[in-house]
Write a structure and sequence with these properties.
It is a single chain. This protein is 38% helix and 15% strand. It has 478 residues and is of the alpha/beta class. Strands 3-2-1-4-5-8-12 form a seven-stranded parallel beta sheet, sandwiched between helices. The chain is globular and about 55 Å long. The site of sulfoquinovose-uridine-C1,5'-diphosphate has 21 residues, from helix 13, strand 10 and strand 11.
């Protein structure tokens, strides 16, 4: 591992600045994991900053959660007189889905530890991007949460690709469940250049492999709740099932993993993860749930709106911003909505309030030992054109005139296709979806309008081409 990292690092240190494409911005060369690791404090040194840092090892779960153990869904009520709360490690707990989920679980009286190397913030610095909403440091976030709720969230700053760090986090926190959001999650980011493609697959695949080894080594009964993606399936011309499909071939029948046709190095990393998890479930008896999530929209959850220091991030740029969130920001600043190609690209979508609900449902109903469950985590399907029409209508209600343009598609993907994906398993577990109603779109648009002065319109157009990706590192100029 160390060898792998140092060799890729040396490539990046010497990389020249090259233009991303003639008409658009450049992107700075991205240091690979080794550089990141050296630039981010490992959690051992972090714990020296006691004034600013929640103590990673000092939590007495039973004391902290006395109230919660009586009523909370996070409590394990089966273990006798003094039930202890379920201990959940949220890897990637400082990110968009991870932060909202950490707060939700803490609010529900789970004992939460965030594990994060803060690399998502580093990507913004590297690429000159910023969240629409101002976000506080992880330390201020956790301090504010504690002051508002008297609930502690444990914090481990470090990289799950570093097994020594992960081992310490596991042995000290002793999780009952691990939610793994800690991956590079942007398809465009993974398609910037060779080094970002390698970084994405190395970080995601090896990080997950480390998590699997940590569970086997230190916490065999621990339930892995892994964020997968609907993009693993691609857009087949048949219905998409939840993880598995029963096929009869030459007179014989079997239930097999649903075929995967991912269409970016990022989405492919999740396919590789799924295979590793499926194998280790069989070989080692790991209990695992793969949440094949669709495109998430929204920003507010009950917890993040409690205080401005708890605000979640809201990406609108061409690399980390996703379709509906981007469209709302575009409408708010008077930029035409950027429909890529014909706009018939159809995906599953869900509100971030449903992301946090789904993760809790998966934790509260764990997989059995050796079981590898797959849930399709979305609530509604939309084409990009349908989203643009919905945002146009919502804009009209708020007196905003919204235009739409067709942008040459920077991706390689079907622009008109059949799409019908099952998504019943989470509903069966009790998911109560927040569907994309007029009122939600109004409030999303209002958030975009509230912060529109923070928008850097140069970041809106797509700048990464699936076809033009090359070996040369892309750089950004100031
Ligand atoms: O301005 C835009 C942005 C996107 N699109 C189109 O909208 C669709 C969705 O793109 P996206 O950027 O909203 O989402 P995607 O790249 O697929 O990735 C996001 O959604 C995935 C779920 S899914 O799409 O694979 O189901 C997650 O895994 C990823 O972490 C998350 O970043 C694509 O067909 C894309 O071409 C546009 O037409 N215009």
């Amino acid at each position: 591992m160390a060898h792998l990292l140092s060799s890729s690092c040396s490539l990046n240190i010497s990389c020249p600045k090259t233009s991303l494409n003639s008409s658009k911005q450049n992107l700075s060369s991205f240091p690979t994991s080794l550089t990141l690791r050296t630039s981010i404090q490992p959690f051992k040194t972090l714990s020296l900053n006691k004034k600013n840092t929640p103590k990673p090892f000092s939590v007495n779960a039973t004391t902290l959660q006395q109230d919660g153990t009586k009523t909370g869904s996070g409590s394990d009520q089966t273990s006798g007189e003094k039930p202890r709360p379920t201990r959940v490690m949220v890897i990637g707990g400082d990110g968009y889905c991870g932060w909202a989920t950490s707060l939700h679980l803490s609010n529900k009286n789970y004992e939460v530890a965030i594990v994060d190397n803060l690399v998502r913030r580093h990507f913004d610095d590297q690429l000159g991007l910023d969240s629409l909403t101002p976000i506080s440091s992880i330390h201020d976030r956790i301090r504010r949460w504690r002051s508002l709720t008297q609930k502690d969230i444990n914090l481990y700053i470090g990289d799950v690709c570093d097994f020594e760090f992960l081992s310490e986090a596991f042995t000290s926190f002793k999780p009952d469940a691990v939610v793994h959001f800690g991956e590079q999650r942007s398809a465009p980011y993974s398609m910037i250049d060779r080094s970002r493609a390698i970084y994405t697959q190395q970080n995601n695949v090896l990080g997950t492999l480390n998590v699997l080894f940590a569970i086997k080594e230190f916490s065999e009964d621990c339930h892995l709740v892994k964020l997968g993606t609907m993009g693993e399936y691609g857009t087949p011309n048949i219905d998409i099932e939840e993880g598995y499909i029963t096929i009869t071939h030459n007179g014989r029948t079997d239930t097999l993993p649903y075929p995967k046709q991912a269409s970016s190095f990022y989405h492919l990393s999740k396919v590789h993860d799924s295979n590793n998890i499926a194998f280790t479930s069989k070989a080692w008896g790991i209990r695992a749930t793969d949440l094949n999530q669709g495109v998430v929209y929204g920003v507010r959850t009950d917890e993040t709106e409690m205080h401005e220091e708890l605000y979640n991030r809201f990406d609108y740029d061409g690399i980390f911003g996703t379709a509906l969130n981007r469209f709302c920001v575009q409408a708010a600043v008077g930029h035409p909505l950027t429909v890529y190609g014909k706009g018939g690209q159809t995906r599953g979508y869900l509100d971030i309030r449903d992301t946090v609900q789904c993760v809790e449902l998966a934790i509260a109903n764990p997989a059995k030992r050796g079981e590898f469950r797959v849930f399709n985590q979305f609530t509604e399907q939309f084409s990009v054109n349908q989203l643009a029409a919905l945002v146009t209508k919502a804009g009209e209600k708020l007196g905003i005139e919204v235009q739409t343009i067709s942008v040459p598609n920077p991706r390689v993907e079907a622009e008109e296709h059949y799409y019908n994906a099952k998504h019943t398993k989470l509903i069966e577990l009790g998911l109560e979806p927040h569907l994309l109603s007029d009122s939600l779109l109004d409030s999303l648009l209002n958030v975009a309008v509230q912060f529109k002065d923070r928008v850097d319109t140069k970041q809106i157009m797509p700048s990464v081409s699936w076809r033009k990706i090359g070996a040369k590192p892309k750089t950004v100029s100031a």
